[in-house]
Design brief:
Blueprint lengths: L1 E4 L6 H10 L4 E4 L2 H6 L2 E4 L5 H10 L3 H5 L5 E4 L1 H4 L4 E2 L4 E2 L7 E4 L9 E6 L1 E2 L15 E6 L1 E3 L5 E6 L3 E8 L2 E4 L7 H11 L4
Parallel strand pairs: 1-2, 1-3, 3-4, 4-14, 5-7
Antiparallel strand pairs: 5-6, 7-11, 8-10, 9-12, 12-13, 13-14
Length: 196
């Protein structure tokens, strides 16, 4: 079973469709039991970091998410929620991946970083990056970012190097939207949904 955590995110319908295009069915839920028992869990984000964390707290999902042992994929703000802290609203996050999320400050470029941008793979043996090549393009929409660290699988450049795929243990995250990233995004989603 594939569950998408119901955090009220605007991208939830596109994630559902992205999974369905792969011939699979996903269930949108905030039910702790269903999330805990799922084979795969997808964590979208909604609004601001503080708003998302408050929604998860109100639903009693903080400890549930932190204790998940199956593959988990955070998308966009959902990826940022995996980190310790965000400058956006001075927000304490889930603390699953070490590091902070900061406001982008790309000299001479506008924020949000919106549109297609290419990836540079750091860890080419990552199971979620199988079949993805350096310079494949993905669709980004964000104003905050995580910097490079040991947990970064791939990055993009937008005035500075921006973490684009992260991984620690069973937790994965993409700063871009794989469900809106055409064939390359479908490859990444498929890879995630085939993790053991």
């Amino acid at each position: 079973m594939i569950t998408i955590i119901d955090s009220g995110g605007a991208n939830i319908s596109s994630i559902l469709f992205g999974v369905e295009r792969l011939g699979k069915k996903a269930w949108l839920t905030a039910d702790i039991k269903k999330i805990s028992e799922a084979d795969y869990v997808i964590l979208p984000g909604v609004g601001t970091a503080n708003d998302s964390m408050q929604r998860l707290k109100n639903a009693g999902l903080i400890d549930c998410i932190k204790n998940l042992k199956q593959p988990v994929l955070g998308i966009c703000l959902g990826m940022q929620l995996l980190f310790d802290y965000s400058e956006e609203g001075q927000t304490q996050m889930l603390g699953i991946i070490e590091g902070n999320v900061t406001l982008m400050r790309p000299q001479g470029l506008t924020i949000p970083h919106m549109g297609w941008n290419n990836l540079k793979l750091i860890k080419k043996d990552s199971p979620v990056a199988k079949g993805i090549k350096d310079n494949d393009y993905f669709y980004f929409v964000h104003s905050y970012m995580a910097a490079l660290s040991d947990n970064v699988t791939a990055y993009t450049e937008y005035g500075e190097k921006v973490a684009a795929i992260v991984n620690k243990n069973n937790f994965y995250g993409t700063q871009f939207h794989p469900e809106r990233s055409a064939e390359a995004g479908a490859v990444l989603l498929k890879n995630f949904l085939e993790l053991k």
